Amino acid sequence: MPEGQSNSVSLSGGVRPETADTRAVDTQLGSKCERCADQLRQLELATIWRRRPWWIRLRPTREELRSYAVVAGILTVIVTPVVLLVREMAETQLAPEEFARIAIALRGGFAGPDGTNYLNTVFGGAYIRGSVASATGHQPSRLIDTWATVRVPGWRSADGTLPVSLDFALPNDLTVNRVILRPHPGEPTSTWVRDFRVEVSTSGAEGPYTLLVAGELDHAMITGVRPSEVIGRASEAQLAEDRLNVPVFDVPETVARWVRLRIVSNGGSDAYTSLAEFELLYASRLNVSATTSATGGVNVTGSRRPPS
Ligand SMILES: [Ca+2]
Questions:
Q1: What is the pLDDT of residue 37?
Q2: What is the model's pTM?
Q3: For residue range 217-239, what is the model confidence (pLDDT) as tens digits?
Q4: Pick from 308, 279, 248, 285: which is nearest to 100 by CA?
Q5: Are strands 115-117 and 277-282 parallel, antiparallel or unpaired?
Q6: Tell me, what's the pLDDT at 238?
């Protein structure tokens, strides 16, 4: 055998002399077989993947898991603050004034069936001072929170002292022509305000004050439901349903900035005096029949609202 050659077995089974050419051919055949083997493995894997059991088919792929994680992260970022806000709102007890602000916003304005009440806190009215102490939880601000329902406490004096003087301020000079005093439906009628005077001033909180109306709240003219105490939250409709029907006191148009309510007598109680709401309003198209008195105001005995 010449040098540089070796024997190898040929495909025909004979002995083939190994040369540089035969080694090159073997190398090409070997690489081609490796590619064939890879393709066969790929085909086998594809067949196994297609024939995989159903429970394996249900398993998410890594890419799917990554997508799910991204979506879950986005939802967590968006939903968590909303959930916390809703929970905080559900646990927050709204003050009557805040509830009134929401109710007025939902109603779309301050004007109600009796006119526009300028004295409520949402409009800008404020309590200044009183001549007597008030009972705990029944402060004078309850007189201008818009509510006259058994579900919201009203004002109570600390004792039976009479007369009582309570001063308030409007947000600015405003023309008014109606006064309404709403008793609290949950309070004994003996504590309800009976004789009263409303005086107004444009000079200052110290006065001088001019009589706007001296009236008697005739309890016999007050009608409506007087439910027993209700516990728990209530919607605006429920808050309004036990509001009593009360007389209104219509007066000539008068400009006012400071307002003094003087409660002269009540229904006979010597324990305390109560009132749910004190309203000073402007109502359009009034038919005012009151007579101007010598004091510059009018004396009116509680009369029902004129027909509209
Ligand atoms: Ca009230």
A1: 87
A2: 0.64
A3: 989 888 875 554 444 555 555 55
A4: 279
A5: antiparallel
A6: 56
| Separation between Cα atoms, residue 124 and residue 260, nearest integer Å | 16
Q: How far is the CA of 9 from the centre of ligand 1 (A)?
A: 113
Span between the terminal Cα atoms of the chain, in Å: 133
Beta-sheet pairing, 210-216 with 298-301: parallel
Distance 258 CA to ligand 1 centre (A): 19
Sign of CA dihedral 276, 280, 285, 286: positive
CA of 203 to the centre of ligand 1 (A): 27
Side chain identity, residue 4: G
d(CA 187, ligand 1 centre) in Å: 13
| pLDDT digit string, tens, across residues 240-293 | 556 788 889 999 999 999 999 999 999 999 999 999 999 999 998 654 444 433
Exposed/middle/buried for 137, CB within 10 Å: 0-12, 13-18, 19+? exposed
Which token pair is 114? 């009796």
| Separation of CA 174 and ligand 1 centre (Å) | 21
Residue 243 is predicted with a pLDDT of 75
Q: How far is the CA of 238 from the centre of ligand 1 (A)?
A: 15
Residues of the chain with pLDDT under 70: 1-18, 22, 25-26, 28-32, 225-242, 285-308
The tokens describing 211, both together, are 């009589």
Distance of CA 81 to the CA centre of its chain: 17
Protein residues near ligand 1, an ion, with CB under 5 A = 142, 145, 147, 276-277
CATH 2.60.120.260 corresponds to the domain 96-301 = yes
Instruction: Give 217 Cα–ligand 1 centroid separation in angstroms.
Output: 17
Residue 299 C-alpha to ligand 1 middle, in angstroms? 25
* All structural domains of the chain with their residue ranges: 16-90, 96-301
pLDDT for 5 equals 47
- Greatest CA separation for the chain: 152
